[in-house]
Design goal:
9% of the residues are buried. The radius of gyration is 17 Å and the shape is globular. It has one domain: Aminopeptidase (3-Layer(aba) Sandwich). 31% of the residues lie in helices and 31% in strands. A four-stranded mixed β-sheet has the order 1-2-3-4, with helices on one face. Strand 1 and strand 2 form a beta hairpin. The chain is an alpha+beta fold.
Amino acid sequence: MAWETEHKRLDAETVLAGVRAGIADPSRARYLVAMQDAPVAGNEVVSVPVGTLMLTREWSDWRNGDWWWIQSVYVAPAHRRAGVYRALYRHVEAQARATPGVIGLRLYVERENENAQRTYRALGMDDAGYRIFEAGF
């Protein structure tokens, strides 16, 4: 995903440790995986992952509540433009609206990723007008 969207090569051990830490501690992250039934030999059907996203939280003192951040979005190429992300987003949106103290959803997107921006706008999200600055360590 990082290579496809940002041309960044990530260290596999670090990523695996990070995902394990997120799964082990729900206060750090929650992962959602979209599954789809796929036929295999005979009449057998197996569920296969076709998309995923991660949720994190950011406390806002201005609004006295949590923003849920959608991160690490990925939909397998063969399943893009088929409603996979929409289903994940609508599920997260419904959970956020039903959770007291959640004030909204946020995500960041590469400036050049116009396809993703169109998708997010079609789901009712707007450009918040911020730029992200960071100091990596």
